[in-house]
Amino acid sequence: MAAKLEEEVELCLIMLGKTGAGKSATGNTILDQRLFNESSNASSETKVVSSKFTRFDNFIVKVVDCPGLMDTDLKSGEDKEKAVENMGKAIGMCNGGVDAFIVVTKRDQFTAENQKSLDALKSIFGDKYCDNLIVVVVGGDTFQGDMEYEGCGGKDFHTWCREQTGPFRKLYDDFNDRFLLINNREKDPDKKLKQRREIIHMANSLKKLNGKYTSTYFKKAKALQDKLIVEENLPFLNETIQERLGLLTKDLLNLKKSMSGSDRDKFLQKVDDLKKEIREKDRGTGLLNKLMEKVKSVESALDDVEKTHTLARKIEQLRKGEAGWSNVFKRSTGLAVVSGITAGAAITGLAVAASPLVLGAAAAGYLISVPTYAFNTCEAMFSYKKKQAISEEKKQIQAVKEAIESKVKKQTG
């Protein structure tokens, strides 16, 4: 009776690490073929996400290679945004999810900067990715030679790891049962086979133990991803938005001099555009809230500018009214229309006493003779009240102007 064929198991591995760490070379070791371009230079060969697959034992293994996060040419927020995009593509290439993240590092080059890289990876993938992480240390071809040179011939890799300090020791303490030393230059077929089997079987064990890392986990980590991107973009965003705020402030100061309806609409459109841009760049992190408050402060200052124009128009109307009232008296030599007397009485607070005949004449709209002293008294009282009103309006304008200046200083501070 023929032996039953063992069911094939699909595995998906994502290669991670810094430029020149050996991601592509390790991928080729797993594939047992030189399918990824390799480089040990400062510039990475891997610029786009790519995947290859192989069959090994009863496994169908897909290996996904992508640019390293916080790489030599991935320091800006814009580049990190691209890195997050690449990671999303890499996960999308793994049907059903990722079985293992293979973090590749050099034995003698894991520094505090590398630790930051791992922290950045956690910001992208969330806590769950640590459950599916394997650390592959390259440089196995020189390990024994180095030990012999140091007088420690025969020392095994894990003993050496436990003797280390600093970032490398922390990494080992976190993932010691998932720490592998490999030689990507190995020529011996049996040793090459052993290396492949170690990595693939460890990935399968993680799959059984912790399950796959799916796109659902990646989406849940979006808040951390956005925070990482905005933090890196923050210096640039602060500078560019402050420049835009400066231009808005200039527009506001110009509106203090003169303002039409179209000028107001254009200004408000610029404010709305900037607020929309800040909301988009903030990604819901709240890191740009201070900048948003400054924009709102400039926006609210527009109301104060409108108040100054309204008060200025009132002053102008009062001045014109005073001149008109005085001219009526002077031209008439003490004669005025009833509407003028009524207005003057209302403004100055004078009580006008008149005989029924006079009132009747006034009601009929006839000119009424007013003694010269009455004219002088009425004119003086009117002028006094007008000056009081104008003075009060000026005080209000000054208060509004001071409020505007305060808001301008606040948003430029």
UniProtKB/TrEMBL annotation:
Gene3D superfamilies: P-loop containing nucleotide triphosphate hydrolases. PROSITE patterns: G_AIG1. Coiled coil: none annotated. The keyword Magnesium does not apply. It comes from Candidula unifasciata. This is AIG1-type G domain-containing protein. Belongs to the TRAFAC class TrmE-Era-EngA-EngB-Septin-like GTPase superfamily. AIG1/Toc34/Toc159-like paraseptin GTPase family. IAN subfamily. InterPro entries: G_AIG1, GIMA/IAN/Toc, P-loop_NTPase. Keywords: GTP-binding, Nucleotide-binding. SUPFAM superfamilies: P-loop containing nucleoside triphosphate hydrolases. Residues 8-222 form the AIG1-type G domain. One of its GO terms (molecular function) is GTP binding.
